[in-house]
Design goal:
seven-stranded mixed β-sheet, globular, alpha/beta, Rossmann fold, 16 strands
C-alpha cells in the first residue's frame, strides 16, 4: 500500500468535480422544465421522471463532493460500522491492525480534533527539558548517558514531527516510535523517510514489554536510561532516568472519586458526573479502550507529578458532548526532592513530617493524617526545624502531603509556592478578587524602613506591593500569604514571567493586560517556573489575557461599572483628558467639574458605593470594614475624603498609576508599578531578589503558627484587621500557652466563640514570631480602629504612622483613613 502523508491544507475541488456539483444544482433548480422536456423522449410518467432526476442529481452531487466527503465517510465506517461487522480474533495486535487497516493514512487528519491535548503535552515536555539545569561533568568522568525519547503508542509519528517545532529532534541521540499496529507504523516509516530523520526509529513491539536495541546490545543499562517517554492516548509504564527523565501523557479519563491523593496533587477538579463517567466508559469500551479510573490513579501513584491539567474536548462545539481528557508531565519518584523539602520547611516555615509522606502542609480539617503510600525517602531527611508552640500543639492544622504525591517537590525551577491541599474553602474562590494592589508600596518602603535584613510577612493580594519591596529594598525573606489560591497564582505568574519572558511580552501581559499568544507562552516558556496548580489555573483561564485582564475577577466589575457610568454620564472624553493631564491644576479642574459629580451623585452612592453586596463582590470590602468607616461619618463623607485630594497630589499620566489603571483600564509606560518598567524588570530578572519569596495559600494565623520564634521583623497585613468582628474591651486575651482549636470538633457555640477570638490568637502569634523591635503594620478604614486595644493588651506598643485629617491624603491611593504599627518591646 502506498503511504501518502497528510498535507497541512485541504486540496481544492478539481474542475470535473465542480462541474458535477453545478450539474446537480442545475437539475434540482430546473427540475420542472426538465421533466416537461424529457417526457417527450422517455416513456415514463412525470413523477417517475422526477424521482429519476433527483436520484441522478444526488449521485452527481456525491461524486462532486467526494474529495471532501471520502475522509469522514471512511472514518465513520472504520470506527462505527466495521467493529460490528468484523469480529477480531481477540489478539490485541490483530484487533488494532484490523481496526486501523482501512484508515491509517487518514489517522492524523481525522484525529486532529478528537485527540486534543497532544500539543500541550509536547510543549510542556519540551519546555521542561530545556529548563533542566545543565549537568557539567568532569573531564575524566564517564561520558554522559545518551538522550533517548520513547514515544509509546506513537503510531504514525505525528508526535515526533510536532515536537520538532518546540525542541529540535537533534536534542535526542535516539528517538523510538513503539506501536503494535503495523498499518500506523507504515505511515511513520514514510514520514521518517520523507523528513530525512536519522535518529528516529520504528519498533513494532508491545508497549508494556518493549526492548530497545541499546538494551539488547548491553550498551545502555535499561534502568534509568530514558530521557523522555510520551504516551498519547496509550497509557503504560517505563524506565526513566531517576534524576532527569520526564514522562508526558495525554489521555481520556473518567473519574468520580477525589480523595487525599487528588487534594495533594491538585487534581480534585478531575471529577466528572456519574452520567459522564458511565457514558464515556461505555462508548470507549466499544473500541476496546478502557477508561477505568484506576489507570490514571496508578500513573499518579507510580510517577512523581510535575504538571497535571484536566480539560474537556468539545470537538463538535457543543456543550453536551465534552470528552474528559488530561495532560500529565511526571518523573521518577526516585528523583532527589531534598532541595524542595529544605525550601518548604527550613526556609518557608513548614514542618518536616516524621511519617510516610515527608512534608507537612497547613489547613487540613483532619486531626489524623492518613498514611497513603510507602515509607519515608532517605532523600527527605532534613535538619530539625525549631518551631513555635502553636505549630507543635495545633496538629489539626497540619496535613502530610509528602514527596510521593505533591507536585511542588518535583518543581524544576524556583520553589516559590509552598505546598497546600485543595480544600473545600478554596472552591469558594472561583477567581481572583484583586487584579491590582490598593496600597502604596513606596510609602511602605519609606515609612517602615524596609531593608535587606528584613524578614517580612505580607498579604499577597495581586503581588504588586511585595514585588516593589523585592525590587527597591531586597529583603532577605518575603512570606506572601493569601487564602485565595487565585491571588497566589497571579503573583506566581508575575514571578515566572520575570524569569522566563522578554520585557515586551511581560509588558503586554501586565501592562496592557492582554497578549495574543498568552496561551502559547504559558506552556512553552512559563510552565517550568509555575507550580502545577498555577499552571492548571492559567491554562483554564488563559482567556483572561485575550482582551483585558484588569477587567476580570471581582475587582474587574468595579472597573466595568465605572466605564458604564462614564458612558451614561457622557464624560468618557473627560476621563481621557484627566488621564493625559500634564498638571495637577488641570486634573483638579476636570475632576471637580466633570468626574466628581458622577461619583458623588445620590444614585451612585446609594445603589453602589453604599451597597454592602457591591462593596464586597466588586471592591472586596466586607460589612465589618464598612462599619469601621461609618463610625467616622457617612459613605459620601468617606468617598470625598478619599478622592478629593488625589488630583492635587501628582499627575496620573506620570505618577499615580493606581487611579490611572482604574480610569484607563491599563497602565502606560510612564505611569506603572516600578517592576513593570524596563529598568525594574531587568533588575529583578538579573538579581536574586525573587529568591526571597515564599507564597503561602493559607490564613495568616496558620502561617504564623509554623514560623519559629522571633523569625520576622515586619508583618504587613494591609486592611485585614478591619474584617474581624469587634471584641468587647473587657474580654480577656486567650492564655499565652493556648492555641486556636479545630472548629470542626466544636459545638456551634464554641466555634462561634473561637471565630470571635481568632484576631486575638493572630495578635499573640504576631508577638511570638516578631523580633524585639519588630513591627506589625496595618491600614484601616477607621481613623482609630477598635482593635488597637487588643494589640496593647498583648503588650505591644501601638503608634499611628498617619491619620487622614483635614482633607489631606496619606499616600497616592488614600483609600484608608489611617496607617498604624504595633511594636514589640522588651518585656
Amino acid at each position: 500500500m502506498a503511504i501518502v502523508l497528510p498535507k497541512a491544507h485541504h486540496e481544492s475541488i478539481a474542475l470535473p468535480h465542480m462541474l458535477l456539483i453545478l450539474s446537480a444544482g442545475a437539475m434540482i433548480l430546473y427540475l420542472q422544465p426538465l421533466k416537461s422536456l424529457l417526457t417527450a423522449f422517455i416513456p415514463l410518467s412525470r413523477p417517475s421522471l422526477g424521482y429519476a432526476l433527483v436520484f441522478l442529481s444526488s449521485i452527481a452531487l456525491t461524486l462532486g463532493l467526494w474529495p471532501a466527503l471520502h475522509i469522514p465517510f471512511r472514518f465513520m465506517y472504520n470506527c462505527f460500522l466495521k467493529p460490528f461487522l468484523h469480529n477480531g480474533s481477540g489478539d490485541q495486535k490483530n484487533h488494532l491492525e484490523a481496526f486501523y487497516a482501512g484508515q491509517a493514512d487518514l489517522y492524523d487528519t481525522t484525529r486532529s480534533h478528537l485527540l486534543k491535548g497532544r500539543e500541550t503535552m509536547l510543549q510542556l515536555l519540551a519546555a521542561h527539558l530545556k529548563a533542566q539545569p545543565v549537568v557539567r561533568l568532569p573531564v575524566a568522568a564517564t561520558p554522559a548517558k545518551p538522550k533517548i525519547w520513547v514515544d509509546l503508542g506513537g503510531g504514525t509519528g505525528w508526535n515526533i514531527e510536532k515536537m520538532d517545532e518546540y525542541l529540535p529532534l537533534t536534542y535526542f541521540d535516539a528517538i523510538y516510535i513503539i506501536d503494535l499496529c503495523e498499518p500506523l507504523l507504515e505511515v511513520a516509516r514514510a514520514r521518517i523517510k520523507a523528513r530525512g530523520w536519522k535518529n528516529v526509529h520504528v519498533l513494532c513491539q508491545d508497549a508494556s514489554r518493549f526492548v530497545l536495541p541499546e538494551w539488547e546490545s548491553g550498551a545502555v543499562d535499561p534502568r534509568g536510561s530514558l530521557t523522555a517517554i510520551t504516551m498519547s492516548y496509550s497509557l503504560s509504564m517505563a524506565m526513566l532516568d531517576p534524576q532527569r527523565g520526564l514522562m508526558g501523557v495525554v489521555d481520556f479519563y473518567a473519574s468520580r472519586e477525589a480523595g487525599s491523593k487528588e487534594r495533594a496533587i491538585g487534581t480534585a477538579s478531575k471529577r466528572v458526573s456519574w452520567f459522564s463517567k458511565w457514558f464515556w466508559e461505555c462508548w470507549f469500551d466499544l473500541d476496546g479502550v478502557h477508561l477505568h479510573g484506576s489507570r490514571r490513579d496508578y500513573l499518579e501513584y507510580k510517577m512523581g507529578t510535575i504538571k497535571t491539567y484536566n480539560a474537556r474536548n468539545n470537538f463538535l462545539n457543543t456543550w453536551f458532548i465534552q470528552i474528559p481528557y488530561y495532560v500529565f508531565l511526571g518523573c521518577s519518584r526516585q528523583r532527589d526532592a531534598s532541595a524542595s523539602a529544605k525550601s518548604f520547611t527550613l526556609e518557608a516555615g513548614n514542618r518536616l513530617g516524621q511519617s510516610d509522606l515527608g512534608l507537612l502542609t497547613p489547613t487540613s480539617p483532619f486531626t489524623n493524617s492518613p498514611s497513603i503510600f510507602g515509607s519515608p525517602s532517605p532523600m527527605l531527611e532534613m535538619p530539625e526545624l525549631v518551631l513555635g508552640p502553636s505549630a507543635t500543639q495545633a496538629t489539626q492544622t497540619i496535613f502530610e502531603v509528602g514527596a510521593p504525591l505533591s507536585p511542588f517537590h518535583y518543581h524544576l525551577r524556583k520553589a516559590w509556592r509552598v505546598p497546600y491541599l485543595e480544600e473545600k474553602i478554596h472552591e469558594q474562590f472561583r477567581t481572583h478578587i484583586y487584579g491590582w494592589t490598593w496600597e502604596d508600596p513606596a510609602v511602605d518602603v519609606k515609612k517602615l524602613n524596609i531593608n535587606k535584613d528584613d524578614h517580612i510577612l505580607a498579604i499577597t493580594s495581586a503581588g504588586d506591593n511585595v514585588l516593589h519591596y523585592a525590587l527597591t529594598a531586597k529583603p532577605a525573606r518575603i512570606h506572601a500569604v493569601d487564602m485565595n489560591p487565585c491571588q497566589g497564582h497571579i503573583l506566581e505568574l508575575k514571578l515566572a514571567a520575570i524569569q522566563a519572558l522578554e520585557y515586551n511580552d511581560f509588558w503586554l501581559i501586565f501592562g496592557e493586560g492582554r497578549h495574543p499568544e498568552f496561551d502559547k507562552l504559558l506552556t512553552t516558556k512559563l510552565s517550568p517556573f509555575l507550580s502545577s496548580h498555577a499552571y492548571a489555573y492559567w491554562k483554564t483561564h488563559a482567556s483572561q489575557f485575550s482582551r483585558n485582564f484588569y477587567f476580570r475577577g471581582y475587582s474587574g466589575w468595579a472597573l466595568r461599572l465605572a466605564q458604564i457610568a462614564f458612558f451614561i454620564a457622557g464624560v468618557r472624553g473627560d476621563v481621557k483628558r484627566l488621564c493625559k493631564a500634564t498638571s495637577t491644576a488641570e486634573q483638579e479642574r476636570i475632576w471637580q467639574k466633570k468626574i466628581r459629580p458622577v461619583f458623588l451623585n445620590k444614585v451612585m452612592v446609594k445603589l453602589f458605593l453604599g451597597n454592602p453586596l457591591f462593596n464586597w463582590h466588586a471592591l472586596g470590602v466586607p460589612q465589618n470594614q464598612m462599619n469601621c468607616f461609618l463610625q467616622d461619618g457617612t459613605v459620601e463623607d468617606y468617598v470625598k475624603a478619599t478622592l478629593d485630594p488625589i488630583p492635587t497630589l501628582s499627575t496620573l499620566k506620570d505618577d499615580n498609576y493606581f487611579f490611572l489603571l482604574c480610569l484607563n483600564g491599563r497602565y502606560t509606560r510612564t505611569s506603572c508599578p516600578a517592576f513593570l518598567k524596563p529598568e525594574g524588570f531587568k533588575a529583578l530578572k538579573n538579581s536574586k531578589s525573587t529568591d526571597a519569596f515564599k507564597l503561602h495559600t493559607d490564613t495568616i494565623l496558620n502561617v504564623l503558627r509554623g514560623l519559629p520564634d522571633e523569625s520576622l521583623t515586619k508583618i504587613i497585613v494591609m486592611d485585614s484587621m478591619d474584617w474581624f468582628d469587634p471584641i468587647p474591651p473587657s474580654t480577656p486575651l486567650p492564655q499565652r500557652d493556648s492555641t486556636a482549636l479545630d472548629t470542626l470538633q466544636m459545638t456551634p457555640e464554641k466555634a462561634l466563640e473561637h471565630l470571635r477570638a481568632e484576631l486575638d490568637y493572630e495578635i499573640l502569634e504576631m508577638k511570638r514570631v516578631l523580633k524585639v523591635g519588630g513591627i506589625a503594620v496595618w491600614r484601616s478604614a477607621a481613623k482609630r480602629p477598635w482593635y488597637r486595644q487588643r494589640f496593647e493588651a498583648a503588650g505591644l506598643k501601638v503608634q499611628p504612622i498617619d491619620i487622614r485629617e483635614n482633607q489631606e491624603a496619606i499616600d497616592r491611593v488614600n483609600m484608608y483613613a489611617s496607617f498604624w504599627k504595633a511594636v514589640k518591646v522588651e518585656e
